[in-house]
Amino acid sequence: MNRLITHDLRHTAGIQIVFWLLLFVVSCTSFVSSASAQAPAPAPTEYTLLAPIPLQGAGGNPTEKTNAVQYITGLFKLIIGLAGVLAVVMLIYAGIKYMSTDAFSGKDEAKGVIENAMWGLGLAIAAWLILYTINPKLVEIKFDIPKQKIAPSTLSGGGGGGGVLPGYILTPEQVAEDNRIELDLKKNIPSVTINNNPCVTGATSGCTNVVGLPQQAIEGVKSFALTCQIAMGKNCFVEITGGTEGGHATHGPGLAVIDIGKNLNVNNYIKQKGAPTNTQACSQLGPQYSLNNTIYVDEWTHWHVCY
C-alpha cells in the first residue's frame, strides 16, 4: 500500500512539474508576443553568442550572431523540441524497463514513467496548438510594428471665431496629397496657384496647406478662376493664401473654406457680380458678397471664401 501511495505521489509530482514548466513557457511566449504588438520596436541589437547554435531549426546553419527576436524564437522552438525528444527518450527507457523486469513494482514504476512522458509530450504539443488556434501570431515572436497610416487631421476651428486650429505636422502621405492637389490646381485653365509651400513642420504662418480641403472647395476655386476670366476678359490670377493649415479660427481640414489673394480683377469681379449679403454661416470680419452660391468676405488683405 505504501509503495502504491509513493508511486502515486511521484506520478502526481511529475505531472505537476511538467505542467508548470510548460505553463511558464507558454506564459513567457504570450507575454513576449503581446508586448511586441503594443510596444514600439527598438532598433535590433546584435549579439555575439559564446558558441554557434542552429536557431533556425535542425536543418539550419549554426548562428554566431543574432538579435533578441531570433534568439527568443529559437529558444522557444528548442524548448518545444526538447520536450518532444525527452518524452521519446523516457518512453524508450520506460519500455525497456517494463520488459526487462518481472517485479510488479518495477512494472508500475515503468508505467508511471510512460504516463508522465505522454503527459509531457501532450502538454508540449497542446501548448503550441492552443496558442496557434487562438491566434497564429502568438507563436510568431516579433518586436517590429507595421507603420500606421495617419489620416489628415480632422481638427477644425469653430465657425465665426469659435477657436483657433493649432498647427499640426504633416505626414509624408499628407505632403504627397497636398502636392497632388496643388498640381491639379496649377493644371487648371486658368491656373490657380498657392502662395506658399505646405506647413510640413506644423507652422501656422509662412506656409499654406490644401491637404484635407473638400473637393467642393477645390472645384469651386477652379470655377471661380474661369468665370472671373470670362467676366473680366482677362486672367484674374487667382491665388490661394489660406487653406487647411493651423492658425485659423474658421477653416481647416474637412472645411470648404479658403482665403484667396486680392487683386484688381478679383476685387472688381466679386463686387460687380456678387450680391451684398449678411450671413452667419461665414466670417463676420468684413462686407460679404454672395456669388454663385459662394460667400466672399472682404477681410482687408484677402478674400475669405466659404463654399
TrEMBL record:
It comes from the Bacteria. Keywords: Membrane, Transmembrane, Transmembrane helix. The chain crosses the membrane at residues 75-96, 117-134. InterPro entries: T4SS_pilin. This is Uncharacterized protein.
